[in-house]
């Protein structure tokens, strides 16, 4: 268990709703849920969630901390915003789901092999190197994120699409060795480092 997670347990012991309100984006809206289920019925991935949104909100209010934060449910959100558009109380459900996922990751409780979480990290690592997404490198990292054998299988499955992109000049192998960059890569790195320092200071303050 991470020290930060332990601090949060001690600070908010027995009141997970208060913890969510204080640390999760738009978390103060959770108590407004009236359990109508419109969000779950509107979600295109509803049948695949461990716990649909209104159930997550109910679990938060019932102090089911580990069950919520260790769930893969929040990582299923695709940001289609159907839930927000149809919620009779206007809850920012999408933002809450992403906020819960981010908080779970910060605490070290996010599911280790959850595909969306793995993709998010790969995308971030790719983007922050140069300020531009290197699509070829990102694609290859996704193919091989579950192991070498799985990567080879996926590459062979996608070979026709890849060859078509090469022929139409929509993809170049040289992209792997260079790719697009922003004008001031050093400035970008400095900005990201400063943002990380500020976030760590904020987290440290809230966790104390």
Supply database-style keywords.
208 residues, mainly alpha, 59% helix
Over all CA atoms, what is the radius of gyration? 20 Å
From the spread of the alpha carbons, the general shape counts as globular
Helix content: 55-70%
The overall pLDDT average reads 91
Number-wise, the strands total: 0
What oligomeric state do these chains adopt?
A: single chain
Low-confidence segments, given as residue ranges, are none
SS summary, helix count: 12
Q: Biggest sheet, in brief?
A: none
Strand-residue proportion: under 5%
Question: Secondary-structure element sequence?
Answer: HHHHHHHHHHHH
Structural class: mainly alpha
Distance between the termini: 16 Å
Task: Describe the 3D structure.
Helices cover 59% and strands 0% of the residues. It contains twelve helices and no strands. It starts with a helix and ends with a helix. It has helices spanning 3-11, 16-23, 38-42, 53-61, 65-69, 82-86, 93-107, 115-130, 135-143, 148-157, 159-167, 185-207. The longest helix has 23 residues, at 185-207. Helix 8 (115-130) runs antiparallel to helix 9. The mean pLDDT is 91. The chain is mainly alpha-helical and 208 residues long.
SSE order and pairing:
Elements: H1 3-11, H2 16-23, H3 38-42, H4 53-61, H5 65-69, H6 82-86, H7 93-107, H8 115-130, H9 135-143, H10 148-157, H11 159-167, H12 185-207
Helix pairs in contact: 8-9
